[in-house]
């Protein structure tokens, strides 16, 4: 039997070859595509009583023509047509612009539907749409009309007509895709009805039920891909079953300079359990800034090495790579573990040494940036990949690195917490470990928002902290478009700061410095040789100098919330009370709102939630690489309950053994087949 995706839109009556070409531009090729081209909102032509309508509101009313129409013409094509119409108890004046051809149809006594703006003062309706009920082409009266995204010669009326025609010709062929039991269990409208109703809703309730059904379908099919991927990955058993002695790990933990928090212990256990399994780990580690994710990664990498393999830690910047390499070397001191560094700025000779070391297995753990995923990098036996601050990395880059090993385990760490609905969507194929508590004895960071005019007092505050032996960051914003200007900004601020504190050592860090220059600036700040570090956002993620207790962010309104929270996370990493000062005179409401969120809370989970609220899901990650899909109907925030439901259903279904064989799941399996889920690479 033919299915709707086998019929070209040309087969719909009224679709010409040129129109077909234009539809292609909207991604509409087949009848199935057209029927799935849902309206994004509705225009309300339902009849109302004028007594319920407020001044200036748009309304649709039903009335009778009274009196004779009056036509005034201006120039060739412009005209103004007025006519008295009786609507309920009112005699109103209907006004049309440039609709002179209606004059002959306005016969006294005739019933008429008017849509337009109601001006009560003048008892007047400025008509945008009118129809004569019972005249045969009164399509809109009393209905909700779909509004499609259209363009070119494809107009709204044409689209409405064509979709209606498609429904007439092919509507009966629309088939259910969801498993029968789910449709029943959630009392979902059948697909055929839902598609009809979403295009031609007869009242809001029907439209809502149709939407609910289609939103569920969209989220379910999306989740099905993620969950199928996850289930297959678990079944495949082609990863590395690491041999890890618990005692080895315990001994390592005992040598740490601090005791692990309960949250850290819990996630270490989750990770080690995964690593011991023969399937590939694909786990997301999320926790707030400063919650101690790095040491968790260090333990996992240690475990990989102890079980005879190599580990790789991939980070977004050279500063971080450098810092992580040092801290790993410190943690693994005297344990015979070789840590290497691979970044873009290595000399050719050093680079060749590192590559050879990795290939021959002399290097156990390599820390690096993008340089890690170049073609000429080979490992003897890559067993674990840790991707730090993952939102900086493209989805593809992750999978490239992954393929370098023999299906290594992958641990992804996020810089800041991700709201739950985001996590389910963007990382739904992963298992999630969450660190909720911060190390003991940490004091909440005190955050203030001040105007630029208070800079004197801010400087005095720096002076005070430094006199207690602490250190401070001053951040100036980076505008991607003009690095040159930013660097100039940073240099100016640096000079000013030097003038304000002639007796202190001031450091300067920005993106234009060479790798070794950055390294020495960071080393000086780390050793408290410089007390104040003027920097661009290059210090945004991961930088760890526990003695720094003051974070000053200039022009803070120019940063997003998660970025502000990240920057703030550079302090509060030791036992001293830390402060964050946002210097900003925001002009916009959202700018003020962001400052308020920052001063309200220093909990990253809460910041993330409010950030999502303020920005909406589309902008949350700020980059295309986030892996977030564009949903046609679903709204990740508004529909989050459906999202969770769909996720649970998809997970339960794909975990069943008969999912892959049972006849009744053929249709959903076909959906997966179409997306080549079985080839495994699709979603990585
Ligand atoms: P993040 O989660 O932001 O990556 P880090 O791993 O950089 O956090 O840890 C922040 C700081 O806390 C580091 O200086 C680290 O050494 C320290 N730290 C980590 N775990 C603990 C702990 N259990 N007790 C005390 N300090 C800790
Ligand atoms: Mg970190």
From TrEMBL:
Entry keyword Isomerase: yes
Chain ranges of the Helicase ATP-binding domain: 274-435
GO MF, any single term: DNA binding
Reactions the enzyme catalyzes: Couples ATP hydrolysis with the unwinding of duplex DNA by translocating in the 3'-5' direction; ATP + H2O = ADP + phosphate + H(+)
UniProt keyword list: ATP-binding, DNA damage, DNA recombination, DNA repair, DNA-binding, Helicase, Hydrolase, Isomerase, Nucleotide-binding
Claim: Hydrolase is one of the keywords in the record: yes
GO process terms (BP): DNA recombination; DNA repair
SMART domains found in the cross-reference section: DEXDc, HELICc
Pfam family, one: Helicase_C
Listed InterPro entries: ATP-dep_DNA_helicase_RecG (IPR004609), DEAD/DEAH_box_helicase_dom (IPR011545), Helicase_ATP-bd (IPR014001), Helicase_C-like (IPR001650), NA-bd_OB-fold (IPR012340), P-loop_NTPase (IPR027417), RecG/Mfd (IPR047112), RecG_dom3_C (IPR045562)
Residue intervals of the Helicase C-terminal domain: 454-613
Gene3D superfamilies: Nucleic acid-binding proteins, P-loop containing nucleotide triphosphate hydrolases
Enzyme Commission number, as recorded: 5.6.2.4
NCBIfam families: PRK10917.1-3, PRK10917.2-2, recG
Family according to the record: Belongs to the helicase family. RecG subfamily.
Stated role: Plays a critical role in recombination and DNA repair. Helps process Holliday junction intermediates to mature products by catalyzing branch migration. Has replication fork regression activity, unwinds stalled or blocked replication forks to make a HJ that can be resolved. Has a DNA unwinding activity characteristic of a DNA helicase with 3'-5' polarity.
Designated name of the protein: ATP-dependent DNA helicase RecG
Protein's organism: Paenibacillus prosopidis
